[in-house]
Design goal:
The protein is mainly β. The protein has three domains: 29 residues, no CATH class; 90 residues, Immunoglobulins (Immunoglobulin-like), CATH 2.60.40.10; 104 residues, no CATH class. The chain is built from four helices and 17 strands. Strand 9 and strand 10 form a beta hairpin. Helix 2 runs antiparallel to helix 3. The two termini are 29 Å apart.
C-alpha cells in the first residue's frame, strides 16, 4: 500500500499489480497520522501470516507520471462533461489532450484539442453525440513532450432521463416537480430504514449490503432488493438502485420498467457515471 502526498492518492498493489487507487482530495495536503499508534494488518483474516513488512518514504513511483480523465453524460443538458484532473506534479507542461468521438457505426472524428498549461483541474463541456439511445466511444489521449502519458476509452449514450427524479436547469434535484435536497446515507438493511428516515435522510444506497448477504446469487439479491424497495417506499426514502457491470448487477435494469416505485429511485449505469 502506497500513499502519494503530491496527488493525495492511496494505491494498493497485490503481487506487483495495482488493485485499486483512490484519491483522498485534490492537491497537496499532508496525511495526518499518529506515529505512536499501532499498525494493524489483515485484521479479521483467519489463518493469515504476514511474512515481512517494508516501510519506505518519499513518493512511491508505482507508475509513470500521468493524470486522470472522466467523461460524464449530462442528458438533462444535452451535453457531456470531460474532466481532466490529478495531474502528476512531475509531468512537464504543456500537456496536449485530444478528445476523439466514435459513433456506433464506427465513424470517428476529433471533438476537441486542449492544451493544459497548468496542473489545475480542467472541465470541458461538449454536446452529446447526435445519435439517440446508442452507445458512443469517447477516447481521451494526452501527451507531454511528444510522449503519451494517458489514453482511455469511455462509453456514453445520449439517453434522456425518465421517471420522477429530474436535475433542473439550476442543478437542483426534483421529484415529480417538487425540489428537494438529497441527504444520502450508505450501508443499511430494511430494518434500519425507519431510523434513517427519522434522522432526516431521504436517499439511500445499500447495494454493498445486499451483495454481502447475497454473494453471487442474483435470486437472493433480487429478493433483498424488493424488500429494500418496499421498506424505502413505506418510509418515504429514495433507493439508489445500482446497475453496474463491474459488480454484475446489470440484471436490475429491467426493474425500472416493471416496478413503478423503482423508477422513483436513481440508477448508476457504469462506474463514474451517474
Amino acid at each position: 500500500m502506497a500513499y502519494d502526498e503530491g496527488l493525495g492518492a492511496v494505491t494498493t498493489r497485490i503481487d506487483g499489480m495495482t488493485d485499486r487507487q483512490r484519491y483522498r482530495y485534490r492537491g497537496p495536503e499532508r496525511l495526518q497520522c499518529d506515529g505512536r499508534g499501532v499498525l494493524t494488518l489483515f485484521q479479521g483474516f483467519r489463518q493469515c501470516r504476514v511474512g515481512a513488512v517494508r516501510l519506505n518514504t518519499g513518493r512511491p513511483h508505482l507508475a509513470p507520471p500521468g493524470l486522470e480523465a472522466y467523461v460524464t453524460p449530462l442528458p438533462y443538458q444535452g451535453r457531456m462533461m470531460v474532466t481532466l484532473d490529478h495531474l502528476d506534479p512531475e509531468l512537464p507542461l504543456p500537456i496536449e489532450v485530444t478528445l476523439v468521438g466514435e459513433k456506433a457505426s464506427g465513424e470517428a472524428s476529433t471533438l476537441e484539442r486542449i492544451a493544459l498549461e497548468s496542473r489545475e483541474k480542467k472541465v470541458v463541456l461538449l454536446d452529446l453525440p447526435t445519435w439517440k439511445n446508442s452507445l458512443h466511444t469517447i477516447t481521451v489521449n494526452a501527451t507531454a513532450t511528444g510522449r503519451a502519458v494517458y489514453s482511455r476509452n469511455f462509453r456514453i449514450a445520449d439517453v434522456q432521463p425518465a421517471g420522477g427524479i429530474r436535475i433542473e436547469d439550476d442543478h437542483t434535484l426534483s421529484q415529480h416537480g417538487k425540489k428537494f435536497f438529497p441527504l444520502m446515507v450508505y450501508h443499511a438493511m430494511p430494518g434500519d430504514f425507519p431510523l434513517l428516515a427519522e434522522l432526516g435522510f431521504n436517499v439511500l444506497l445499500n447495494d454493498f449490503n445486499l451483495r454481502q448477504h447475497a454473494g453471487r446469487d442474483t435470486a437472493v439479491y433480487s429478493t433483498l432488493l424488493r424488500e429494500s424497495l418496499d421498506a424505502a417506499e413505506k418510509n418515504h426514502l429514495l433507493l439508489w438502485v445500482t446497475a453496474n457491470r463491474d459488480f454484475n448487477t446489470l440484471f436490475t435494469i429491467p426493474w425500472r420498467r416493471i416496478i413503478p416505485r423503482c423508477s422513483a429511485g436513481m440508477a448508476r449505469m457504469n462506474r463514474g457515471v451517474t
